[in-house]
User: What shape does this take?
Amino acid sequence: MKRLLPLFLCGLLPSCGPTHNSPNLGGIYNAAAQQEHLDRNPIIVIPGILGSRLIDDQGRVIWGQFGGDAVDPSSAEGRHLLALPMSESGWPRDNVKADGALEQLQVSLGWDFQFSAYAGMLRAFGIGGYLDSAKSDLSTVNYGPGHYTCFQFGYDWRRSCAENAAALGRFIEEKRRYVQQERIKRHGRSGEVKFDIIAHSMGGLVARYYLMYGKQPLSNEANMAVTWAGAQHVEKLIMVGTPNDGSIYPIQQLSSGYRLAPFLPKMDAAVVATMPSLYELLPHKKTQAVIDRDSRPIPLDTTAAWESLHWGLADPSQDVVLQKLLPELSSANERRAMALAHLSKLLRNAKAFHRAMDAPCHPPRGVEIHAFAGDAVATGSRAQLNAKGKPYIIDLIPGDGSVTRRSMLMDRRKAAEAGERLKSPIRWTDTRFIFSDHIGMTRDLAFVDNVLHILLERPWEKFAERTKWCAPFSHKNQQGLFWDELSLRPRVPYYHARRNVRETHGSVSLTTRDDRDSACTKYKFRNANASAIS
Assistant: This one.
């Protein structure tokens, strides 16, 4: 069975094997989960590609249910609804919208059954009514009847990650107002509202783009400025199985179409190939992940390569599908011209997205980025073309079955640097590894245990004190010390690690971020009894 991010069926059914010890999550976290401290951030869960239900303007399910009242994606109507409208420029809207995260995939084909998608993770984090759904080992945390600070962000996964980042920004603004109102109602005051985000697979790209650029549209400019506009509303971003350097598997779906399971309808290549998100998930150009039969790298960002290989919208045999998608165009030549123009636009968009996400991701102080990567499943990293011009996997490396460990960490070490420390454009707060497949990671008890610890228990006082004492400041007293307007306490000036500044205060030489943070802490206690301090 072919795979697409995320791998929905791999790991959806319970597996047989030896019994493993598991933590009593309820016993560990119930007390902390039921607290309503104002300094506890609300959380937002963002699923990956395919992980949000899609409906039309009549409420019919376009994605998330097969059979019953759902639209058949293999029918003429289903193809037209599922594919994005094509154009030579711009991104036309259609009547399809997201309807929340996909808890379970419903299948009704003569018999009814369900595949659990994000139900376990949503229950574990107390997302609304999901707490009361089917029993699960992950539902043992009792968040109490009044818990109101967990949200799920469903989005149209067909569209660009940048477009969905703007939608995430609007979602955060809406939920921020809601949390403020609830806090005032319950506690008489609101306080500052920041969010913690748990994002799976492509959802991590949506969240990271939002942190770096806010609601700013994607630009084709060579140097798109990182503004960190979204970081003012987020304190922690937890990424799980995110293809930060892309994945090899979307190439197979873009070139040949996608079938979720042998007994389910297939999405034709021309339908899948209308979606910007799939191109944004392609491997980074630097990885040279696809080679031809002579081992030469294929430039995936050029229309000419797709035309020569007859992939997706550039495949002449897909004209029968294009007739359903472009009924207003009467000739095959007109349809092909429109399809190639749309393909060219998609490739330019993906190139701009990769360039934007390749910028150094060094978040401002107070913002944390955590990584949960899979590294126990052999995962494709390179592909080669067969005699028919179709890609097949030739290299397998550690990953989660859909995303390699290297891609998740955005590991940019070269082969000669394999023994050196991790080199990544992302400044990770910490990295952890889960021994499950792509979708199974979200239900893994080790993952849930660690995430709940980060959200509910991990000490924050030390970090807060460092920020309080060492943040940049502009006022000096006569002795040259910096002062805090609120507490009237002296501070040591803070210099960002990227600036090559060497400053000496007394006998302390400040050369690195850690050195400066340590000096700030020592300076605080050394001057705690100074006569000028109230």
Confidence is low (pLDDT under 50) at residues 4-17, 127-139, 461-534. The longest strand covers residues 377-385. The longest helix spans residues 161-187. DSSP finds 15 helices and 21 strands in the chain.
